[in-house]
Write a structure and sequence with these properties.
The chain is an alpha+beta fold and 183 residues long. It is built from 7 helices and 8 strands; from the N terminus they run E-E-H-H-H-H-E-E-E-H-E-H-E-E-H.
Length: 183
């Protein structure tokens, strides 16, 4: 299946590629101060304009067609509202690895949405893309995400003191145990 047509569904969320119709909601998400508080340093954008949003997601769609990334918007099935963005960055098919990233609106934090997004995407990555491992980079100040990784058993791989980040990684052989904690 082509990446730009792929959808994944669970009880709480529906993941699909973004479309230009999603741009207003993505702009609101990326401009939400509480949601983006820890992530602003990564994007180096003070305010997301219509033009910046269009360029970002057009770039994502182009890279998706080239199979360089797999990016989804996160739709809350109960409300049919866009509540986030997640996916695989830096797909390395030869090495069978990728990074996974997620941004969820603060209103859904602690409600199991992150677990479902991680489970859906990592299932797809390990089963369909034959990944050997998936890594996650988070800011050292993002204690919520670090706690999530610890709770589900995704080990810390390294710390980058200069960039103030932490890298976690789940390998194919440990995925079933991690997955069992995401249900």
């Amino acid at each position: 299946m082509e990446f730009e047509q792929l959808t994944l569904t669970s009880e709480k969320v529906f993941l699909r590629p973004s479309t230009p119709a999603d741009h207003p909601a993505l702009k609101d998400l990326l401009n939400d101060q509480k949601t983006m508080a820890i992530l602003k340093a990564y994007f180096k954008v003070e305010t997301w304009t219509d033009e910046l949003i269009a360029a970002r997601y057009e770039n994502y769609r182009n890279k998706q067609k080239l199979r360089e990334l797999l990016d989804f918007v996160v739709i809350d099935r109960a409300t049919d509202q866009l509540i986030g963005n997640c996916g695989f960055n830096h797909l390395e098919f030869e090495k069978r690895t990728s990074d996974f990233g997620i941004i969820l609106h603060h209103s859904v934090w602690g409600k199991g949405i992150s677990s479902e997004c991680h489970r859906l995407c990592l299932d797809y990555g390990f089963q369909n893309l034959n990944f050997k491992s998936v890594s996650f980079v988070t800011d050292e100040a993002n204690l919520r995400m670090q706690g999530f990784f610890t709770k589900v058993g995704i080990p810390l791989l390294s710390t980058n003191v200069k960039e103030k980040t932490r890298r976690y990684e789940v390998k194919r052989d440990s995925w079933p145990e991690v997955r069992s904690k995401l249900i």
